[in-house]
Design a protein that fits this description.
- The chain is of the alpha/beta class.
- It has a domain of about 120 residues: Trna Endonuclease, Chain: A, domain 1 (3-Layer(aba) Sandwich).
- Helices cover about 35% and strands about 25% of the residues.
- It has 6 helices and 8 strands, in the order ααββααβββαβαββ.
- The strands form 2 sheets. A 6-stranded mixed beta sheet has the order 3-4-5-6-7-8.
- It is globular, with a radius of gyration of 22 Å.
- The N and C termini lie far apart (about 80 Å).
Length: about 180
Amino acid sequence: MRGKLTLFAVCAFKIGTLLTSTEAVSHSGGLDGLGCHNNRSTGNYHCHKGGDLSSSFKSLKSSMSETFYNLALAKKLKGETEVTFEYEYGLEGNTPLLASIRVDILTEEYVIEGGKDKRSSLDSIQQAVFASTLVGKKPAVAIYDTDGLWGKYEHRVWTAAKELGIKFIWFSDGEIKDVK
């Protein structure tokens, strides 16, 4: 009986140590070769120990979240991500209502709305233009290439951006590519 109690006490101590460890509480799972990992609870990909977000895109790009790409592009452009701005709206004569919009990337010159090369990126121009009116910066859109191809969504967003005079950024393999 005494051996079982000792074993139970040792196991309880080890479990208690694991639960109170800062690293065990703050992270689930190990780091990849870049020193980064995907936080399963939030879906965010982030790095520790000086991990470089812009390397090894070819092997990671299709499975990474939009947040991963926003962080990588913001790092290249020296911008900040997930910036929220409040604004008032309502019809004239009515009490104004308050709302907010979050922009993917804010630089000294641009408000950038990013999206993967999927259908969901088609509203990026509207979001960038609206946010730019709130903060007095130029609108820009970024499309994150996940398949190594210039596809129909890249083409649609690029065509509309070009027609409207909005900066277009094609982010492929961790680099900003020229599009003409």
